[in-house]
Amino acid sequence: MPEVNPARLLTSLADFAAIGATPAGGVNRQALSVEDRAARRLLAERALARGFTVFQDEAANLFLRRDGRDATLPPLLIGSHLDSQPTGGRFDGALGTLSAFEVLEALADAGVETGRAIEVVAFTNEEGSRFSPGCMGSMAFAGAGNLSDWRRARATDGALLADELAATLQALPEARMRPIGHAVSAFVELHIEQGPVLEREDVPIGVVTAVQGTKWLEIAFSGEAAHAGTTPLEFRKDPMGAAAAAIACIQGDIMPADPAARLTVGRIAAEPGSINVIPSRVSFTVDIRHPDAVALAAMERRVHEECEAAGARWDCGTVIELRVDMAPGRFDPQVTAAIEETCRALAIRCRPMVSGAFHDALFVGRVAPAAMIFVPCRNGISHNEAEFVSDAHIIAGAQTLLGVALRLSAA
Ligand code: GLV
Ligand code: MN
Ligand code: MN
Asked: Locate the Peptidase M20 dimerisation domain: which residues (predicted)?
């Protein structure tokens, strides 16, 4: 059985962590940014140096292909994403992408010929932080969303998606363009768990059987700008009052009512944003998650009702937009079985689990058999510069991915 090269993989993770490195030890390599382009370039150059073929599609999804015996068979896809949160960690996405590339290199080193080709993918804009929605590249790949609907999207820094996408594609002229959504035989994504379960139970591998659902709402209250010192309560149309009431209900009432519920207000803006002006407008985001689609829809309705009520109480207009709607998804039993069998063969303990985070595999899983491999991260911390995965867990994850890739590419 071929083995991954631990030193090469750890060096590769460090090399990519240097692209967009933050002083606190994390990365800021947001989707389609200059740093994201630099990471794609480095990966593409390494692929070309190894004799792999490099492709990209119109969503700037990047593919690195090692041919197999039978070119008529659809390739096995492995990989993840290279973009990060603004204060992201070194492993979210990078671990799965670079381990997948290590799989290709290890197979090449060992001279193993697979039955079908294996392609490594780095999907575009998984995080959804700079441009919404997240999983943009994999949604477009799977036909679950339309690139043309997102081209007018504005980044948090004002950039237009269409411009950033074009610049990213142009920055890699060596990559052959291919039509979006080519057939693949299966998809396997290695990722850090981003939660505390594996570490707490001291289990090195999670076999992900399902992903919970996510909805992103953008809520805006509009009132009337007025003087902070002179405007009595009964004259105020204060959108901050409405936002405060709505958020208090989301955090203090809706979420505590259900232990499986996750609600997060991660971004808030007040206009004009002056200390002594009652704001004219306050907008904020709500990220809602639940493993059960019915419970998720009920929470969304409840957030709507509470926001409408809070807006009315403060005499404000209320606008609620649904920005992301990801139904919960189940992974393919044959792919999860291949992961379990690989762990058994490698004598690595594993356990089934549901992902609390969304992932590109959720969307690829709609068009091909897919599943995920999780490894523990320290204190379950992710979307944080302190994110950390031990070398032993990195190697166990990559070796498991290699074993699964061999099983699924035998053809
Ligand atoms: C992925 O980044 C998520 O927010 O689940
Ligand atoms: Mn990720
Ligand atoms: Mn993430």
From this structure: 210-314
